[in-house]
Specification:
globular; 142 residues; 4-stranded parallel beta sheet; Ribosomal Protein L13p, Chain: A; 29% helix
Length: 142
């Protein structure tokens, strides 16, 4: 018996709609990362993009547990000496709520070309409106 290897032609990608209102950031991000990788599918292959497209709405209404809202820091660097900047989760959630979920999911994906490709399949929106109605996404409860 030969080993089954999934190919791009055999993959079927679906669209899912996830409402992030009232969800804990880390727990939501683990579920989204699993769906993006396609680990729940029987034809999962770690070297292929066999995951689905995810539309995450209401990113501004996510919840942090404990004191993470004041204590958790998000870093970025300009590339120059002394160019490291940081901001708290509270400030990032106020200014760019989409980035909170995106950064959490990014940390749970592979750190290579495939991980960057998978992150493009995640669409995050601060409010409840999204421009992907034509794809007819299935509502997914997490």
């Amino acid at each position: 018996m030969k080993t089954f290897v999934a190919k791009k032609e055999n993959l079927e990608k679906r669209w899912f709609l996830v409402d992030a209102e009232g969800k804990v950031v880390g727990r939501l991000a683990t579920k989204l990362a699993t769906l993006l990788r396609g680990k729940g599918k029987p034809i999962f292959s770690p070297h292929l993009d066999c995951g689905d497209y995810i539309i995450c709405i209401n990113a501004e209404k996510v919840v942090f547990t404990g004191k993470k809202l004041e204590q958790k820091l998000y870093y970025r660097h300009s590339g120059y000496m002394g160019g490291q900047k940081s901001r708290t989760a509270e400030r990032l959630l106020r200014e760019k709520p989409r980035e909170v979920i995106r950064e959490a999911v990014k940390g749970m994906l592979p750190k290579n070309h495939l991980g960057r490709k998978l992150l493009k399949n995640l669409k995050v929106y601060a409010g409840s409106n999204h421009p992907h109605k034509a794809q007819m996404p299935q509502r997914l409860e997490i």
